[in-house]
Every structure is written in C-alpha cells, then in structure tokens.
Design brief:
2 domains, disordered N terminus, 366 residues, 13 helices, binds beta-D-glucopyranose, Rossmann fold, four-stranded parallel β-sheet, six-stranded parallel β-sheet, alpha/beta
Length: 366
Amino acid sequence: MKKILAVALAALMTWTFTACSGSETTKAANTDPLIGLSMPTHSDESWIRHASFTIQYLKDLGYTKFDDQWAEDVVESQVSQIENMITKGAKILIVAAVNGEALGGVLKKAKDAGITIIAYDRLLMKTENVDYYVTFDNYKVGVAEADYIVDKLGLKDGKGPFNIELFGGSLDDSNSKYFYQGAFDVLKPYMDSGKLVVKSKQINLETVATPGWDAAKAQSRMDNILTAFYADGSRVDAVLVPYDGLSIGVISSLKNTGYGSAKLPLPIVTGQDAEVASVLSIIAGEQTQTVWKDFRVQAKACADMVDAIIKGKEVPVNDTKTYDNGVKIVPTYSNAVTSIDITNYIDLFNAGFYKKEDSVWKGLVQ
Ligand code: BGC
C-alpha cells in the first residue's frame, strides 16, 4: 500500500523542469533562478510529500524552475545528481542528504559556483559549505516519544519495573543522534532507578541504530532480541522506535512472536512521521504513537528561506545555537512537532494533512 501511495503522490507532483534558455535576460535568471532539490529516496512517503509541498510553495511565490532529483538512498547518486544541478546552473540547492557527512566535496563545488545551500531536514555535516538549515526540532521528536512511554506506563506515579527495548535511526543521518538523545534524556532516570529495564542491555546509539532506516533490519533485530532475552516468558512493555517505517517492522516481529492477543497485548510502540501505514496501525490498535511533523510547515519555511535569499532579504531563522555540524553552527529554522495517538489522530484530518475522503481511510475515519 505504501508503494501505491508513493506512486500516486509522485503522479500528483506535476511540476516541470524548465531549463534556462540562452535568450533569458539576466534579470529573469536572477529573480527566477533554477532551484535544485536533492532528495534521499522515493521509497519513503514522507520525502515525496516534503518535496511536493516545497515546490508547491515556491510556485506560489512565483518561482518556476525546479530540478528535483532522487538518490534512492545511494550516496554516489546524490553526489552526481548535485553535480548535474551545478552544471545546469542552479542558484539554490535544497539538500536532504542520504549521508550528511558524504557530500563535502560536491558542496564545495556548489559553493565555488556561487550556489546557496540549504540543508533540508537533515543537517549537512563537517562542511563549511552549508548556509542554512530548515528542520523540525529533532531533539523534541525523541522527547515526545519518550514522554509518551513515561506517561503510558505511569512511571511518574512510581509504577514499574517495566521492560523496554530501544531502537535508533541510521547513523549516517545526523538527525538520529538528536532523536535518540531527546528520548534518552527522558528515559535515563527511570533506567537508573530500575523502573525501566533494558533486558538486552543494548543501549548505546551505535548498538541500537538501524542502518539505512531499513525496516527489515529493525524487524530482524527485534526478532533476535525477543529470542535471546524474552524466551523465558517475560514480556516487553515498550519499544522506543524513532520512525514509522521501523515501527511497522518491529510490530510485525512482535506479532510473529505471539504479541497482539488479549493474553499478550502489544507493547507501547512509538514512531515518527504519521505515515499512512502507521496511522492505519494506530487506528487498528497496534502502533501506539507517532510524532507528526507537518511537512507543510517545514516546506513553507524552506520556501520562505529561498525567497528571502533570492530577494536579498533577511533570511528567517529562529535557532542559531543548536545545530553544530562539526565545522560551524548552521543558522536554522526549526519547527515544532506534535505527538499523535488514538486520542488525537483526528487532528491530522482536521488540519487537512490527510483527507477523510481518500479511499485509504474509507469507513475508518468519520
Ligand atoms: C527524518 C525523519 C524520517 C527519517 C527516516 C529523518 O531524517 O527527519 O522524518 O522519519 O529520516 O526517513
């Protein structure tokens, strides 16, 4: 279903790439320059929506020339796609990196060509050649997931001990450490007091990370954990998961092992992105929580940044402290996130993020 949706969303993205023609005046090129969007993958519904909203808002501001390229999670493809954008004369690059540390060389070329570079959602690391960053508050994503676990388990009321297992994102995505740190800071006191027990003892981000944000890898890690640490009849009460795709994999593993019955209910499973499959899973009573990042807000912030850069106005940023990429602190526009569960998922529809009329929700959402 995810694939069908991805294809449908891709089909909705009807922008066309218009090459700069030699006859165009310099003035037109300056006011309506080519804008490159380098995106990590089509296989994750969220990125398709990020790009289509960004282009839509830029169109609303009067821009007409776009080059969107999709790396399908291959670093080399992303590098050569950005090289092509430089050759085509892009003036602004919006980059959501596959691997935030791997683009230093091509970003230097872009900078030398006078291009302004915006890191989109994922910070570009260890390079001077990034001008701005537009994101959600990545640390608070983790806080929202962990707060949810703390609330649902009643840890603040002294309940416990409970068993928890932890999952992290992909280590090559700079967001992963913020997500994990946010969650860890909330959960740590309860681990220290013994109210939360990680039976696998797998706690460091390096150990719990999920390379490539790959759901199959998360599923098999959960399989291994359940076999190795829960075969004694103990049960896992909560699983910290940082992204919906992985949550679905973790839930499959749990269900294959017998969770999901009245006798053995599924544990609390968190997520991120409010993807369609996960909202359906929340409605079905399986996934417990997700973090909603309203992509429209981030895409609008990005479009406003681009507009300000092109018009030579002050670029809107609201965080000049947090996002240190190892070489510089990148001026950032950071957006707020919302925790979603069965009690408030309707907000996604009330806000127009999803539409009740779409066939995928038929009969499920009133
Ligand atoms: C994004 C998340 C997304 C994850 C997996 C992160 O960089 O911020 O929204 O869930 O990548 O694609």
